[in-house]
Amino acid sequence: MVTTKRYHLAQRPEGVPDDDTFDLREVDLDDPAGGEALVKIRYLSVDPYMRGRMDAGESYADPWAVGDPLRGAAVGEVVDEASTEFDAGDTVVGNMAWAEYHLADAADLQRIETGALPVSTALGVVGMPGRTAYFGTREVLEPRAGDTVVVSAAAGAVGSVVGQLAKLQGATVVGFAGSDEKCEVVEDEFGFDACINYEATDDYVAVLADAAPEGVDGYFDNVGGPITDAVFTHLNVDARVAVCGQIALYNAEETPTGPRKLGKLIETRARVQGLLVGDFAPRFEQATADLAEWVAAGDIQFRETVTEGLENAPDAFLGLFEGENVGKQVVKVGE
Amino acid sequence: MVTTKRYHLAQRPEGVPDDDTFDLREVDLDDPAGGEALVKIRYLSVDPYMRGRMDAGESYADPWAVGDPLRGAAVGEVVDEASTEFDAGDTVVGNMAWAEYHLADAADLQRIETGALPVSTALGVVGMPGRTAYFGTREVLEPRAGDTVVVSAAAGAVGSVVGQLAKLQGATVVGFAGSDEKCEVVEDEFGFDACINYEATDDYVAVLADAAPEGVDGYFDNVGGPITDAVFTHLNVDARVAVCGQIALYNAEETPTGPRKLGKLIETRARVQGLLVGDFAPRFEQATADLAEWVAAGDIQFRETVTEGLENAPDAFLGLFEGENVGKQVVKVGE
């Protein structure tokens, strides 16, 4: 038996989650029974989609029940197991609780080898965010040489990879990010052609007209709201829009409203399509291998923001909505 | 030389066009010069998209200049020509002025043979509206057997054909129309499985839940606004939305606003695509032939609303926005 600290959903938040949302408990975990593995967690992923799971209503992820442990992708080390394919010492990734230890069905874990990369990248550039970028770019955005592609949340775990993949296809890539410091990273490290600091202007339509004078052929949307409205204004004929996230709206207490934009689609015959990486599960292995190769070759750069300590996981999560992270936000729980 | 009455754009309307929008002039037309044909117009088409051409701003059709003749698809008879492939007496369709006579470049005219059908159908079920339905259904909506398809403006020239084509593919088809009388036509003549009179309820979400209990796999949108919001609420995974028109918004004086719906696309991975029939011009001949065959075989039913007299063309046009037409609205100008 092991005792672990673990976060539970204390109550459903109205609007922005706060201290009353998170309940840190101390719980005892049973020893692994057949087919189970006990994992000592090293890194937790916090992701914007988790906000949707805190609500009772419909989202693209099932809601958590009040009192349930909060869960997400995590990397850890198997410390005990019963009748599984894993050995103590194996490094694994899977959907686990926000906790120090997690008792997992072994079927939900995958052994990982990140080689020269830190194991935390299994939650980022070679993990779900990287694969989201990979399939979203290939299957929905379809950037072509000469295209102008716009990426919102360009400094984030997904957006940073999308922009680099679009560059590899020969597109001109413009990002939106929330500070001058982030824009420097987006331009200098991730190699975007331009980056707009959306905190420095209210007139996104005008700044985008300057940054994308030939209009927008592809838009990868992680944020929604006014930035997305501005990009729609500049869509070209036959543009593609991949809708991956709407982080600007996730904490809204009322149904968010905005200008109606479907008429723009008639004018441009643009295609707007939602994206959920789980649909591509049969192709994850290839995507992960491709991403790892491109990172190793230096074709894809990445950043991580590491928050230390399980007790700081709620702050790390809430920081996503304040744009505090550059690249993938993870929480370091244990060595 | 011939003298004709002809409508010109008197001034750009703010909101709903009115008498001050339309200027009926008496003008003299020259005799045809080389490559021109003088056409005596029999039927004029009035279409919702023309509202966009009255504004200075962007639309999917180029704006008219103030003082320009109003133009649209028309059917007529060649009465004089100079060095063209046409003979006096030929029945032709083309883009012509709202007038009794029009001096056309012969290159802009096509000879038509509607057989047993009235020539006015070249403006409707076997004309541009029919082809819009044809390509929109095949290329964007992609109805499959077992799908539930929703069509707004179901009694209209485009919607009525879309629904029948979706039925031929084995879909269950639900229409929205603006009166009980129209819904009777939609169900009994056009063969839709159900029709919702949107004037009889404000709770489109609830009535659609009843009419489409398995959700919506395909939506063909001619109207925009709250009906479209309600349909989005019911979209199924992998749904397709064809955006063909937004007539509910065309007379808006302010930018129309509404609930933001892109998050629904993540949940469903739905694809939303704008549609402009002109993109399919290389395939018009086949489409027209197919439609004519299906109409002749009784597989596609159609209706026309005929307004008599050129002087009533503005009222016929404005009636589109009041939902006064059933099927294709045309104006009969001459015998």
UniProtKB/TrEMBL annotation, chains A, B:
Keywords for this entry? Oxidoreductase
Q: Where is the Enoyl reductase (ER) domain?
A: 15-331
Which terms in the Gene Ontology molecular function aspect does this entry carry?
A: oxidoreductase activity, acting on the CH-CH group of donors, NAD or NADP as acceptor
Instruction: Please state what the protein is called.
Output: Enoyl reductase (ER) domain-containing protein
Q: Which Pfam families match?
A: ADH_N_2, ADH_zinc_N
Oxidoreductase keyword on record: yes
Provide the species name. Halolamina pelagica
Q: Which InterPro entries match?
A: ADH-like_C, ADH_N_2, ER, GroES-like_sf, MDR_fam, NAD(P)-bd_dom_sf
Q: What SUPFAM superfamilies does the annotation carry?
A: GroES-like, NAD(P)-binding Rossmann-fold domains
Name the domain of life.
Archaea
Q: Which Gene3D superfamilies does this entry report, sorted A to Z?
A: Medium-chain alcohol dehydrogenases, catalytic domain, NAD(P)-binding Rossmann-like Domain
